[in-house]
Amino acid sequence: MRISKDVFNRILESFKRAWRKLPEPPDSPDFRAQLEQRLRFDASSPTERVERKFAAALDLDSARSDSTAFRRSVMDAVAELSPSAEPALGHAAVVAQFRRAVLLTPEPEPSVEFRHQLMTKVRREPAYGAEPEPSLLDVTMFLAERCAISLCSVSVVVSVIFFTQTSLISMTELTSLMILVG
Amino acid sequence: MSSGDNYDDLRLIERILAGEQSAFGELVERHETYVRRIVGKHVSPAEVDDVAQLGFIEVYRSLKNFRGESSFRTWMGRIVLRQCYAFWRQRDRRKEVSTSFMSEEQEEWLARTMNGTSAAVYAEEEDLRLARQVLFFALERLNAEDRTIVTLVLLEDRSVQEVGEILGWSAVRVRVRVHRVREKLRGILEAIEKQGNDK
Q: I need a labelling partner for A47 at 20 to 30 A (CA). Which of A148, B106, B110, B184 fits?
């Protein structure tokens, strides 16, 4: 049944009343202490931030205690690799973190779909009619979405970001990466 | 909040910008409840602290841009709302699909609200609880932009100019989107109603 304008407005009024009377969030005794910690973290150098975020992600992964927190932690680290942050990043330090991640994480078997998506994302010269070349942000977001798969896969894809950022990716590099993933 | 309170905020901001970082702690203390209350309306309780803290961090980073054209609290509120919007955009990118479904009780509430009999049937608290549940069910089915338009324009009655400033859109774009979002929301409610009738 089509909802008339009057009926819609009546429902909307109920929603408004409910919205105005939403319960307040419960007190959070640690709120200020956590914020202070985050502000201190924010003031550190980009390299330090990435290193610490990945270290935190690795700790969480090894504990396997909270997959949501792990995912968020990796995403936070990845967010540090945004194009605006890139010039200030110490790449060598970050890559070292990824290598450490690869070494520490048990090798999983990536899915065919994952490999296909990775290929699509790193393709530098799309075929006629294919999607345009992805931006660094696309690749990063793809990574963020997929980071629940495994830290190893995440590490490989972020390595791809570095390759694609600095130079045109060669078939040799791509093949090496695919071997790593597979 | 009085103009004197805003004056106190301005003094604190001067101290922070002069390098006295501890003054930001005082600013947070003054506005923590206000900020968490705003965020608490827009994200789930489990996410409130995270988003509110990101909001404060953004406020801290932006302090040097505060021109005093509005009260500090108003200016800060907009930054915090922008952070809520960013939260939903990030959620969209993760493509998390809502798996919630309507209960018979919620469908019945909607049917009664549609035919104007809910006030006679439900006690106020019960009415508010069901309205809230149906509202959040509908909001979960909207993307970040649409959700923000619904909450800020349709539920909070903010002007299209103000929402445009928060989202970084022109007022015209907000106005067009409001029209579309009303239709979307109506479509969602019609689908719920149909689902209830089909049972």
A: A148
Q: Are B30 and B2 in contact (CB under 8 A)?
A: no
CB-neighbour burial class of residue A149 (10 A; exposed 0-12, middle 13-18, buried 19+): middle
Q: Do B189 and A34 count as a contact with CB atoms less than 8 A apart?
A: no
Measured between CA atoms, the residue of chain A closest to residue B33 is A27
pLDDT in tens, B132-190: 999 999 999 999 999 999 999 999 999 999 999 888 889 999 999 999 999 999 999 99
Which chain A residues contact residue B156 at CB under 8 A? 19
Please tell me the distance from the alpha carbon of residue B193 to that of residue B187, in angstroms, as a whole number.
10
ipTM at complex level: 0.89
pTM of the shown model:
0.64
Average pLDDT (A52-72) is 49
Contacts of A10 in chain B (CB under 8 A): 113-114, 116
H-state helical runs in chain B: 3-17, 22-42, 48-62, 72-93, 104-114, 118-121, 124-139, 144-149, 160-167, 171-198
Q: In one letter, which amino acid is A82?
A: S
Helix B72-93 / helix B48-62 crossing angle, nearest 10 deg = 120
Nearest by CB to A32, which of B28, B48, B110? B28
Are B29 and A36 within 8 A, CB to CB?
no
